[in-house]
Specification:
With about 450 residues, the chain is mainly alpha-helical. About 75% of the residues lie in helices and about 0% in strands. The structure holds 4-fluoro-L-phenylalanine (PFF).
């Protein structure tokens, strides 16, 4: 069950720090820096943040342990992993296959948003922002970027190119090395910006907003927090499973999963503690929606001391976060082709990189007036980009989460489950922790996720 087929030691992490950096790099992404602050703003702050933390601890973390565990135990990519551990039952392989499909789909539109970040990074370097602080000028700047076919395709090409180059270099020489340096730089940049945030007049109102009690919290906010916890921890589609498969047989699963979840949460809260002081310092509303970092933050920062440098640091941070996540998405698809079809890394990476690039083009065109944008909005009520995000985030991720929970909770035999939980981990021998974990993956996660899906279908 644990034979490594066509793998050797260069396809294992050099150190557990390397694994934590790579997996935290997967988790920390646009979801933390772009999305979490704006949904926190839209849902009124403190109570939403508290509920989100609860979702991470009670649902996200147990599934993360289960997912990394399937990877470590099987030493295989998603589809193969379910095949091996279920002794060939093909139904379980569907969970892995859906995950690979979801990863490909997510990366195809993720790259477009990352591309906007690249464009803004360039604008911050060359000082290309409007001279006056008229909000309309910034809104127009962002709108014209979203609508521009040429710019979207250009930045999509650059971003997918960098991602593909890193994955081509393999686990140790590419992904682990990039993640070690990238995550270190990311935390330094975030720390620098957070210190800058404390010097601003909006700092205390921001603390109150992020940690205080709020009354805008609704049912819908709760569901949004839950869905986002999944997306943010990169759960449900086999990315953590793939990275877990590069662990050594006796590496710690429980402790490293906790470290990854903490790193992800620190960055999400850290991003709020950077963005809200900036917004509040010039009197902007926190509920600006998706344009928060592309419209409101440039407007605000450029009115503040050292704003130009602040913007540059911020978009560099965004780019690093996006890259380490994109790398994990591409790696998952690549691992599938290497493992299941016996392809070489070079062939698998260039083919998948190219395929995802092409699949991203309709998303690049989604801001325009053509078929994939305005056309589909008329037919489906959403653009191609929105539809891809909706399908992946609202359906494929939660379905994968249920599959992983049920598999580890019910399909693995109890002896194997206990052994795998304990193996390599000091925390693994804590009986009560094991008990809570089993409770979460057997009952709590599947039930809660089904409720969320029923709500999405408007059955509840
Ligand atoms: N966790 C990433 C983020 O928060 O941006 C997104 C992501 C990466 C989701 C990898 C899923 C995944 F497999």
């Amino acid at each position: 069950m644990t034979d490594r087929a066509n793998r050797n030691s260069s396809s294992q992490w050099q150190s557990s720090i390397g694994f934590i950096a790579a997996a935290a790099g997967s988790a920390v992404g646009l979801g933390n820096i772009w999305k979490f602050p704006y949904i926190t703003g839209e849902n009124g702050g403190g109570t939403f943040v508290l509920f989100y933390l609860l979702c991470i601890a009670v649902l996200g973390l147990p599934i993360m342990v289960a997912e990394v565990m399937i990877g470590r135990t099987s030493q295989s990519s998603p589809v193969r992993a379910f095949q091996r551990l279920s002794m060939g039952n093909s139904w379980w392989q569907v969970v892995g296959a859906l995950g690979v499909f979801a990863g490909i789909l997510i990366l195809s539109y993720y790259s477009i948003v990352a591309g906007w970040g690249l464009h803004y990074l360039l604008l911050s370097i060359v000082g290309g922002f409007p001279q006056d602080s008229n909000p309309q000028a910034y809104t127009d700047l962002f709108d014209s970027l979203v609508q521009s076919v040429r710019l979207n395709i250009w930045w999509h090409t650059v971003f997918m190119g960098i991602t593909t180059l890193v994955v081509l270099r393999g686990i140790r020489g590419g992904i682990e090395r990039f993640a070690n340096w990238g995550m270190l730089a990311l935390f330094l940049l975030l720390g620098g910006l957070a210190i800058y945030g404390t010097t601003l007049p909006g700092f205390f109102p921001a603390i109150e907003f992020v940690f205080g009690f709020s009354d805008n919290f609704t049912w819908k906010s709760a569901l949004e927090a839950l869905g986002h916890a999944f997306f943010s921890l990169s759960l449900g589609i086999g990315a953590m499973l793939t990275y877990g498969s590069y662990l050594k047989r006796h590496d710690d699963v429980v402790g490293t999963s906790i470290a990854i979840a903490i790193a992800d949460t620190v960055v999400a809260i850290g991003a709020c503690l950077v963005l809200f002081p900036i917004a509040f310092s010039v009197g902007l509303e926190p509920s600006a929606g998706p344009g928060l970092i592309f419209i409101n933050i440039p407007i605000a920062l450029l009115q503040l001391p050292f704003g130009q440098i602040g913007l540059l640091v911020f978009f560099l941070l965004l780019l690093l976060a996006a890259l380490t996540s994109a790398i994990s998405l591409l790696e998952m698809a690549v691992a599938f082709f290497i493992d299941s079809l016996g392809w070489t890394r070079t062939l698998a990476t260039s083919t998948m990189g190219g395929f995802i690039y092409l699949l991203g083009i309709p998303s690049a065109l989604s801001g325009g007036e053509g078929f994939f944008g305005a056309g589909l909005r008329q037919i489906l009520g959403m653009t191609w980009f929105d539809a891809a995000d909706y399908l992946a985030s609202n359906w494929l991720l939660p379905l994968g989460g249920i599959g992983i929970s049920l598999f580890v909770g019910w399909r693995l035999n109890s002896q194997q489950r206990v052994t795998e939980f304990r193996d390599g981990s000091r925390l693994g021998s804590w009986q009560w922790l094991y008990f809570l974990w089993v409770l979460a993956i057997r009952w709590l996660s599947p039930i809660v996720i089904v409720l969320v899906m029923l709500y999405n279908l408007e059955i509840l």
